[in-house]
Amino acid sequence: MKLSAAAKFISGGFEALLAIPFIGGSIVIFSGYSALGTAVVLHIITLIITLLYRTAKTPSIVGIITSIISALPVVGWLLHTITAILLLTSATRDLRR
User: Fold this and answer.
1) DSSP 8-class letter at 20
2) Could you tell me the pTM of the whole model?
3) Out of 21, 38, 62, 80, which residue is the most buried by the measure of CB atoms under 10 Å away?
């Protein structure tokens, strides 16, 4: 498996976890919002890997933006859902290369 696909699956899976209504919000709130900091770090690492492997960068950039502005409850859920879909779709494409 390509490292870029693995990184996207990991960060996409974390985004999908945060997108689960009430569960994701609880994780964010009870972690003192540090879960969003963890997500930013994951997306930055994934972005660096995608730059090295020359694969799609956009999902990681969207993930960084999502993690920064997703402190708003409904907006956060929507953005985490969109970001998870983008990352997991991109990871699947990376595997086919």
Assistant:
1) S
2) 0.91
3) 80
